[in-house]
Design a protein that fits this description.
By secondary structure, the protein is mainly beta. It contains no helices and twelve strands. The strands form three sheets. The protein has an eight-stranded antiparallel beta sheet with strand order 1-2-5-6-9-10-11-12, with no helix packed on it. The chain has a two-stranded antiparallel sheet with strand order 3-4. About 2% of the residues have low confidence.
């Protein structure tokens, strides 16, 4: 991957940050399944390679750009208000426990593609002095997932129950985070944190 980021101070109160990253990922996997057969007397016969899937070579390549933009404002030296937009990316990979399945959407579940997320966040950070110095931070965020990677149970062509990661669809998450710390003494700090999440799957494909 290659990455760069910079912050520009517009003036004493405003600053802007921008960053960009480009990532190349490559994952390879190999599966060789063997079925052991027993006769009616329970004697092990010579192992016979499974016809489906038998030997499977898997490879998944993915490359995506990601970035972050941030605008912050400091009305006082102790207070900062900000807004941020971030594009995130999770690489595609292989599913050694999955198998080639022409009936599945996309043709196969032994590999899965990359996942993308757009994150929007606004918040504030406050520090205070006095007899009980500390901080108080709050943030509200919204995450928009596409081609989301989810684990799904499958039944292989040989009748074996397994699981695989699939690009199952779209979802969204929004929430609120609150954090506060107070320094009671030089050696004692009290903290309180709260998070609320609201999640919803918007689209879901069935790969069974």
């Amino acid at each position: 991957a290659i990455y760069t980021q910079a912050t520009y101070d517009i003036n004493d109160q405003w600053s802007a940050t921008g960053g960009a990253r480009y990532t190349w990922d490559e994952t390879k996997g190999k599966v060789h399944e063997v079925a052991y057969k027993f006769d009616s007397d329970g004697i092990l016969e010579a192992p016979d390679e499974v016809v489906a899937p038998g030997k499977v070579d898997m490879e998944q390549k993915s490359d995506k750009p990601t970035w972050v933009t941030d605008l912050s404002y400091k009305p006082t030296p102790e207070t900062m208000v900000y807004g941020k937009y971030t594009r995130g990316y999770r690489q595609g990979s292989v599913n050694p426990a999955g198998e080639h399945n022409p009936a599945a959407s996309g043709g196969r579940i032994d590999i899965h593609g990359p996942e993308k997320v757009d994150t929007f966040e606004i918040g504030s950070k406050l520090s205070f002095e006095g007899r009980l110095p500390g901080i108080f931070n709050v943030a509200v965020f919204y995450n928009d997932f596409r081609d989301q990677q989810l684990q799904q149970g499958i039944l292989t062509s040989t009748g074996v129950a397994s699981t695989a990661i699939v690009n199952a669809g779209k979802s969204r998450i929004w929430g609120v985070e609150i954090e506060s710390n107070v320094n009671v003494t030089d050696n004692l700090q009290l903290g309180l944190a709260y998070t609320y999440l609201n999640t919803e799957v918007l689209e879901l494909e069935d790969f069974s």
